[in-house]
Amino acid sequence: MKALVLEDIGKFAMKEVPAPQPTAGEVQINIKAVSICGSDVHGYDGTSGRRKPPVVIGHEASGIVTKVGSDVTKFKPGDSVVFNSVKYCRDCYYCKRGMLNVCDNGSCYGVHTDTVHLDGAMCEYLCVPDYIVYKMPDGISFETAALIEPLSIACHAVGALNIGLNDTGIVFGAGIIGLMMLKVLKTTGCRKVIMVDLDQNKLQLAENNGADYIIDGGEDVPAKIKEITDGLGADFALEAVGVSATITNALNSLKKGGTLVQVGNVSQKVELPLQTIVSNEIKIQGRYGTATEYEIGLELVSSGKVSLDDCLSVVAPLEEGQKWFDKLHNPKVVAEEGLIKVVLKP
């Protein structure tokens, strides 16, 4: 089969490699679409340290079941499917409590470190355990289905909140995860959703997706939020950036007793306004990845409650992978071309 192999930092090559065959409990999937994640780009340039060459990367994908191993009864050849980006064990302390996303033995597809090598989906065929596979509803394209993984991350983040009909929420960061959190929030009945970012094009897209207010992150964000909320502050904030400035703004924009859901984690350490957290009794909840929210994401799209069309910037053949990784690695090009999600087709 053909595969896009990361051979060196910043360098891909199309190669012929053996097609994997399903073992007991596995399904073989003919990959029809695979999306480039931001973490893939950080692997391509070597900054993450989690995609050591050589490796086939890619974990946001969809396809058709072509073979099934013994003991597989839920799927058959011809089924259109998506799959969880993480292969979890189902046996550790956390898996047994439904916290599949923080499995002690979990591994993400398309990752190569000193201890893990699990090739990913930028290839023609991939074998995965049947318990991480989900059937695609009718009417969803493979390209759209390749975006269900980040949508499920947004669902997991929003799921941390007990949202009331009169609540006001803020999303910090209008990238792909922030935009999808906005889309999910608009299905909850939340009264007001405010989007904060520095990029005017992203803010415009957020407004097009129903953001009730958009705020330039370079302004005095907490003051703007207080104006909108009659001096109280927001009920909750979802932070999808992960740097001190935006986290501080988020905490200072909440009403007393408010909740911050922290999703962005680009920084290993940040400074926090501790007095604000304590004296205002702010709750902070970390949210990582996705557990079982794939089904929720698929239902939101198939029902028409959420559209991902405006997130899909480019569909290109897998052979053009190098070109699109190079573009996504260049912030100027990303801004000029308005790139959000690039999907490759093997």
Give me the secondary-structure topology.
Layout: E1 2-8, E2 11-16, E3 26-35, H1 38-44, E4 60-68, E5 80-83, E6 86-87, E7 107-108, E8 111-112, E9 117-118, E10 125-129, E11 133-135, H2 142-145, H3 148-158, E12 168-172, H4 176-185, E13 192-197, H5 200-208, E14 213-216, H6 221-228, E15 234-239, H7 244-252, E16 254-262, H8 274-279, E17 283-286, H9 294-302, E18 312-317, H10 321-328, H11 331-337, E19 341-345
Parallel strand pairs: 12-13, 12-15, 13-14, 15-16, 16-17, 18-19
Antiparallel strand pairs: 1-2, 3-4, 3-10, 3-19, 4-5, 5-11, 6-7, 8-9
Provide a brief overview of the structure.
The chain is of the alpha/beta class.
Structural features, described:
This protein has 346 residues and is of the alpha/beta class. The protein has two domains: 2-152 and 291-345, Quinone Oxidoreductase, Chain A, domain 1, CATH 3.90.180.10; 160-286, NAD(P)-binding Rossmann-like Domain (Rossmann fold, 3-Layer(aba) Sandwich), CATH 3.40.50.720. It is built from eleven helices and 19 strands. It has helices spanning 38-44, 142-145, 148-158, 176-185, 200-208, 221-228, 244-252, 274-279, 294-302, 321-328, 331-337, and strands spanning 2-8, 11-16, 26-35, 60-68, 80-83, 86-87, 107-108, 111-112, 117-118, 125-129, 133-135, 168-172, 192-197, 213-216, 234-239, 254-262, 283-286, 312-317, 341-345. The strands form five sheets. Strands 3, 4, 5, 10, 11, 18 and 19 form a seven-stranded mixed sheet that branches. Strands 14-13-12-15-16-17 form a six-stranded parallel sheet, with helices on both faces. It has a two-stranded antiparallel sheet with strand order 1-2. A hairpin with a 2-residue loop joins β1 and β2. α3 (148-158) packs across α4 and α3 crosses α9 (294-302). It is globular, with a radius of gyration of 20 Å. It starts with a strand and ends with a strand. 45% of the residues are buried.
